[in-house]
Specification:
Structural class of chain B: mainly beta
Oligomer: heterodimer
Radius of gyration of chain B: 13 Å
Largest interface: A-B, 29 and 31 residues
Largest sheet of chain B: 7 strands, mixed
Shape of chain B: globular
Number of helices of chain B: 0
Structural class of chain A: mainly beta
Amino acid sequence: SQQGEEDPQALSIQEGENATMNCSYKTSINNLQWYRQNSGRGLVHLILIRSNEREKHSGRLRVTLDTSKKSSSLLITASRAADTASYFCATERGSGAGGTSYGKLTFGQGTILTVHP
Amino acid sequence: DSGVTQTPKHLITATGQRVTLRCSPRSGDLSVYWYQQSLDQGLQFLIQYYNGEERAKGNILERFSAQQFPDLHSELNLSSLELGDSALYFCASSVATTTGRGDTQYFGPGTRLTVL
């Protein structure tokens, strides 16, 4: 089953606007990662935020993490047509009684972002 | 370009057949992961290898198997193929098996498998 649930499932905006995508998850995590996928192609890693971090920036990307609410958001500022893609959050679970998670990522269903020029 | 290579890019085969997907990780990466992406199941973790040893298993069918060789490349073997096995199969690599450090996983371009 999918750990992460993205919201919204689809987002359509104009160039220059900001895009915000949300991700919720169910179990404790070590980190949460965001990936971008252009139509049917490989996944591109965008940003990783660890469980002890609350916010991270990378260029036009801003990611927040609220472990108390088990949620994260990805903000893309000043969007461009080239940002059109599917965006996925992926969680690496925290170690429990069974030991470490060994890097297994659990992906959400993704948000399809369309940026109109 | 992530530095992870996968071959072939496309594979079309018939039900009941067996195929092998190949992955070469980024230079220096010891961990290899396999994921399956389908319309109904989304992106699912299949299996992970670290330096030749299996480290974690996900939703991998018994008809599927994988291995990582001494040169660190990996192969995913899919046998007795069914229509439902049609999907994109991704390989990813990272520096090391994680103990919570959160190594970034770099994904290859994928192999699109079509079972007719």
